[in-house]
Amino acid sequence: MNNWEYSESIESEKIVNIEKKYGNFIDGKFVTPKSKQYIDTISPSTEKILSSISIGNQQDVDYAVASAKEGLKKWSKTNPSERAKYLFKLARLIQERSREFAVLESLDGGKPIKESRDFDLPQVAQNFFYYAGWADKLDIAWGNEQYKPYGVVGQIIPWNFPLLMLSWKVAPALATGNTVVLKPAETTPLTALLFAELCEEVGLPDGVFNLVTGDGSTGSHLVNHKDIKKIAFTGSTGVGKYIQKSLAGKDVGLTLELGGKAANIVYSDAALDEAVEGVVNGIFFNQGHVCCAGSRLLVQEDIEEKFIKKLEKRMQTLNVGNPLDKNTDVGAINSKDQLDKIEKLVNEGVADGGDLFQIECELPKNGFWFKPSLFTSVQANYKIATEEIFGPVLTTLTFRTPEEAVEIANNTEYGLSAGIWTEKGSKILWTADRLEAGVIWANTFNKFDPASPFGGYKESGFGREGGRHGLLSYLKVSS
Ligand code: NAI
Ligand code: MG
Q1: Are 265 and 445 a contacting pair, CB within 8 Å?
Q2: Does residue 257 carry a catalytic annotation?
Q3: Phi, then psi, of 153 in degrees rounded to 5
Q4: What is the pTM of this model?
Q5: Domain 13-257+458-478 CATH class label
Q6: Would you give the distance in Å from CA 297 to the centre of its chain?
Q7: From-to residues of CATH 3.40.605.10 in the chain
Q8: Active-site hit among 105, 257, 387, 388
Q9: pLDDT, tens digit, for every residue of 184-205?
Q10: Which residues line the pocket of ligand 1, CB cutoff 6 A?
Q11: Among 66, 322, 420, 456, which is least packed by CB within 10 angstroms?
Q12: Which of 239, 342, 417 gets mutated to test ligand 1 (max ligand atoms within 8 A of its CB)?
C-alpha cells in the first residue's frame, strides 16, 4: 500500500454549465435535430446522466453537408491570413477557458483532471496556434506546385482524447481552406459542443465548422454522403476497414488512424528506474485508452525479474479513482462496453496461462473501473499479446538479443508506435531502423508536439496528422 495517503483535492464542477439537451451545430448556429432522437451521455465515474445529445440521421447529415458546401464557397477563397486570425482567436479562447474544457472532458470521459488539464488542453491550444501559423505560409511549402483544399471534409473522432482529436483534425482542415462536418464519439460529445460555442463567439463564418452528434449510424451517413470529398477517421480498425471499403473506387480522400499494440523495449543496459516510469506512463496514461499505448512490454530476459519487481512496486503507488481529484493517476474506464471488452480479454489471458498482477486498491462503487494490471508468463500467441486491449493492462514478453526484440516487436498487424530504452545511442538507431512503427520514442514515451507528424504503418492506418505532413491530409497537391 502507499506509504503516504493523499487527502482529497477535488476540482470543482461548478465551472461547467451543461445543458439538459443539445442539438447540432449547423450553419453557424445550434439547431434542433431533424431526427428528434436523443441518447444520454453519462459520466463514467459515477454513471450520472450529464446531458442528452442528438443522434443525427440522414437529414441532419444532409443539412450539415449542405451548409459546409455553402460555407466552402467563401472560406476556400478567404485570404489565408484571415483564416489564420480565426484559428488564433480559437486558440486563445481555448486557453482562456481551458479549466472549463478540462473539467468537462474529465466528467464526460472519465480521464484524470491532471491529464485533461496538463496534457489534453495545452496540446489542443498548441495545435490551433500551430496550424494558425501555417494558414498563410502554404505558398512557402508548396509554392511551386498547385495545391487546393479537398472541399467538404467529414471528420469522425473517438472517445479517448475527444477535444485533442478534434484539434488534430479541425485546425489543419480549416487552415487549408476546407470546411468541416465533425462527428464526435457518442460517449464524449460535450467538449466538441462547447467548441462549437467558441466558433459562434469568434464569428467563424457560417458553414465553416459543423457538428452533428450521434453514433455509428450518423458516422456512416457522413462517410457515404455524395458531397463529402475527404474523410478523416480515428477509431477502431474494424470501423476503419468498413470506411475504406465504403469509399473504394470513389474520388474521396481518406486518412485512417486506427489501433495499435506498441512494443516498449527495455534493454538490460537501460536506466531501469527511468524505464519503469516510461513503461508506467506508456500504458496507464489515460487508463490505457491510447492508440499508441506501450501495451507490450518487451524486457531483456536477464533483467526481467528485477524489472518486474520494480514495476509492480511503482504500479502500486498509482492512485485510482475520482477523475476530478487532482491526485488521481488512473480514472474511470470510458464506458461499460469498453470495460466488458477489457474484462473479457483479461479473463482470456488468465485462462491461456498468463500470470496476472493487479494493484491493491479500493475501487469506487459506481462507475466503470479496472485495476492497473500486469501480465507475465505470456506466450506470443495469446490474445493479450496480439489484440489491442485499450485498457490499463500491460502484457510482458521477453527477448534475449536485439534481433529477437525487433522480431517480436514487429510481430503484430499494427504499427503505430514503439519505445526503446537503452543507454547506447547506437542501439537506439539500430533498433529504430528496424521497427515498423510510425512513431518511435527513445528513453521516453508519449511525447507529442504539434510540429511532429503522427500516424501508422500496416493496420494502424495511413496518412499523417501533425506538422507539415498533417497539412497534406487536407490538401490536393499536384506539380
Ligand atoms: P469505434 O471505431 O466504433 O468508434 C470511433 C468513432 O467511429 C465514433 O465516433 C463512432 O461513433 C464512429 N463509428 C462507429 N461505427 C461507425 C461506422 N460504421 N461508420 C462511421 N463511423 C462509425 O470505436 P469503439 O467501438 O468505441 O471502440 C472499440 C475499440 O476500438 C476500442 O476497444 C479500441 O481498441 C479501438 N479504438 C481505437 C481508438 C484509437 O484512437 N485508435 C479510439 C477508440 C477506439
Ligand atoms: Mg460521457
Answers
A1: no
A2: yes
A3: -110, 135
A4: 0.97
A5: alpha beta
A6: 21
A7: 13-257+458-478
A8: 257
A9: 999 999 999 999 999 999 999 9
A10: 156-160, 183, 185-186, 215-216, 219-220, 223, 234-236, 239, 242-243, 257-259, 291, 338, 341, 388, 390
A11: 66
A12: 239
